[in-house]
Design goal:
Helices cover 38% and strands 15% of the residues. The chain is built from 14 helices and 13 strands. Helix 9 links the parallel strand 9 and strand 10. The chain is globular, with a radius of gyration of 20 Å.
Amino acid sequence: MKNIIIVIDSLSGGGAERVMISLATELVKQGHRLTILSLSNRCDYDVPADITVACLFNHKASKVDRFWLIKSSVKRLESWFSDERIKNGPCDLVLSNLDRSNNLLSLSNVPAVYYVVHNSVTEELNRQKKLGPLAYWYLLKSKKNLTKKKLISVSKGIAKEIKAGNVIVPSEIQTIYNPFDIEAIKEKASIKNEAIPKEPYIIHVGRLAKQKRHDVLFAAFAKVSTNVNLVLLCNKPDKALTLAKKYGIEDRIILPGFQSNPYNWIKQAQALILSSDYEGLPTVLLEAIAVNTKVVSTNCPHGPNEILTGDLAKYLVPRRKPEQLAQAINQVLSDDVKLEDAEILTKVSAKNIASLYLSLTSI
């Protein structure tokens, strides 16, 4: 039995969080000890009871690596791992996720750490420049903290980008796709939910953030057949509604808010749409394919072109092009698309992905 710790900024309703819960679930199923150490006490997911969740701080994760708190935060992290070692023995593998967790662990003496990169580093930095020099400096410093560290990229595109750039010079980097328990996803997708609309709809799943480009999605949807509505599973439905009014589509969108089980919503949709500027390996595309729901995606860096291959590649459109996104949505709604044999599904089996992570414990 291996003792594995997943460290993450929080368990808020994001893709990285859902990915790590899926990995933890599979590792526990295989008989290993698994603890998720969250920097903050926020948890939007229903975490399985056999996964231990610990909280390092009682305040928001955004405070833990401010320069006047960083030393005390690192010391607290090291103390937690010291206590864990006494209780359960040495940690065989530590997986760090997201910038604040990475910052603390990169400055700590905690051993056996791998840093999981979930997004395009270049695109994140380009986005941060627009928020001012301090925000950019913080993110750049966070990324540079990964130099000489062992990295895991969730897509081949991310690994290629890091190797070609000069922001992060890792000691090693390898790609491990996100894990998916296809049968569990199908089971959750079959759960009845009376809140799911009976009329036809397409769906977008993702937090309301600039990266997700809801503005592009809404501009495209305004040009889509009026025979379908748009369901948004997002964390800020009120703000989403305000934005939708700018595009005259407020009467055609449905806003149930964040859903801990999005799979039955996705399964009942006519298609799932991804409109992002950048990603890592978009979880929602894989989940939609797994439940036989058609997809359209921007060909953003990185991940969509590793998922939508073969006949599915025609549903990739240039990012930031609402007109072309609308055309692809109208097209997919009328197409008969075969998803059962999508090549990517054989590459993301939770059992196989867990084995790749476990192989790191013998290195």
